[in-house]
Design a protein that fits this description.
The chain is an alpha+beta fold and 73 residues long. It has a domain of 41 residues: 3-Layer(aba) Sandwich (Ribosomal Protein L9, domain 1). Helices cover 22% and strands 16% of the residues. It has 2 helices and 3 strands. A 3-stranded antiparallel β-sheet has the order 2-1-3.
């Protein structure tokens, strides 16, 4: 049995719900982009949940634009 998280509605199951399914069902849902693996054991580089935890936010760079000098008379 595998746990998968639905990334879109499928039948009576709603997007975002976690289901425990057989290997064959998991293969179908994963290959048809209906679900993603949910029981990775954490700290992997493959699933979306773990990727989100490891992201580091870059500092915001501010750019200052000087107004162009008007030469028209």
């Amino acid at each position: 049995m595998k746990k998968v998280k639905l990334i879109r509605d499928y039948g009576s199951a709603k997007k975002g719900s976690v289901l425990e399914v057989s290997e064959q069902q998991a293969h179908f849902l994963l290959t048809n982009s209906i679900a993603v693996v949910s029981d990775c054991g954490s700290n992997c580089d493959e699933c979306e949940d773990c990727k989100g935890k490891k992201k580091k936010k870059a500092p915001v760079k501010k750019t200052v634009r000087k107004p162009k000098a008007s030469t028209k008379k």
